[in-house]
């Protein structure tokens, strides 16, 4: 069961970076502008953010295994549509369906709570949660090889086959969910959350290309904030909310989710900044002149170390509590980016930085579900883990926007070659380090002990340690 859920997590995370190596070529392949081509990546992020909390609530109500099967089926359908596409619109549709699949990771974590003995739960949760980073990092070189040497449609053949294998594994190995939440599905809440998240995430992700002062950017951000405020008031007054905000406001849950934003920022920063540093030409005295494939391979140790650290993080959580594991992880990320400010002139420097970030993210991702599930009712595990996943996505979106601006405003040109300057790369690392330090502050204020529900998803890990 752990293997099946970890495999589906890897497949879902792979979808998020599937097109990343191909992005520079998409405008030529699809005969569209670079801004339009970027939608093939942006739509996946938006679909993942919107669908994850909604499918989490549906899983709590109607069965988590059933929802995992539905999501994997949608990934297969999306892969087929993208595989057959030769223009932008069907590719966007296919990529949106693939993005929905990221919801299998928080659902998988919640399934583990239902089917495993408590003694085995920590390590399994750490492993499945880590797949969010592992799948993307390990998938990058695979995508790079296919993009460089084969027809780009093969990417979606691979993704469709992997999703189909995952679907069969879940169908055969995962038992039917028996723990269900009472109530009905909150359609109004789902619509409000979708509109609010799309407004904010779209405004943040496209602000640099549209202009931060443009009416479109400001309008989207304003609408997103206003809708989410109204959505919050509605959720507090409905009997069966999509997300119980009173639970989400508990100090442990709130601070863990805020820390998740910073971890999502710091992790995504490595996938934004390091490839550009590696692939930039050496003529400017800044870049390292590596190919797309070599750059992807340099980032792969980050994903492998996340996988390797998941059992270590689980043991630390059992011994010292999930809060300690999260604190250690974010602190390691901060140290990694501080080192990056001064060491960015050799290929091995980037491998060291990526590995340090992966080391820290492995500890952080392993601990966050345990913190969340220790502070929410047993019937809200999937919805609460889904919200935590959205917070990571929000951090990644902010990183993409902020660091994109930093790297495109500080440029150096030698001849006809233009790349981000050394000071721009250093500023990006400084910002990433600051984000990690903010995460450390949030984590420090997470209570060591909290009042538990009679039917909590998990016993308090710190209580178990004590």
SSE topology:
Blueprint: H1 2-17, H2 26-30, H3 34-37, H4 39-62, H5 64-83, H6 88-100, H7 104-115, H8 118-149, H9 154-173, H10 187-210, H11 215-237, H12 245-248, H13 251-279, H14 292-320, H15 322-342, H16 347-373, H17 381-409, E1 411-414, E2 417-420, H18 422-444, H19 461-465
Antiparallel strand pairs: 1-2
Helix pairs in contact: 1-7, 1-8, 1-9, 4-5, 4-6, 4-10, 4-17, 5-6, 5-7, 5-9, 7-8, 7-17, 8-14, 8-16, 10-11, 10-17, 13-14, 13-16, 13-17, 13-18, 14-15, 14-16, 15-16, 15-18, 16-17, 17-18
Describe it for me?
With 466 residues, this protein is an all-alpha fold. It has three domains: 1-177, Up-down Bundle (Growth Hormone, Chain: A); 186-241; 244-466, Growth Hormone, Chain: A, CATH 1.20.1250.20. It is 77% helix and 2% strand. The chain has helices at residues 2-17, 26-30, 34-37, 39-62, 64-83, 88-100, 104-115, 118-149, 154-173, 187-210, 215-237, 245-248, 251-279, 292-320, 322-342, 347-373, 381-409, 422-444, 461-465, and strands at residues 411-414, 417-420. The longest helix has 32 residues, at 118-149. Residues 453-466 have low confidence and may be disordered. It comes from Herbiconiux daphne. This is MFS transporter.
Features:
mainly alpha, Growth Hormone, Chain: A, 19 helices, disordered C terminus, 466 residues, two-stranded antiparallel sheet
In short:
With 466 residues, this protein is an all-alpha fold. The chain has helices at 2-17, 26-30, 34-37, 39-62, 64-83, 88-100, 104-115, 118-149, 154-173, 187-210, 215-237, 245-248, 251-279, 292-320, 322-342, 347-373, 381-409, 422-444, 461-465; strands spanning 411-414, 417-420. Strands 1-2 form a two-stranded antiparallel ribbon.
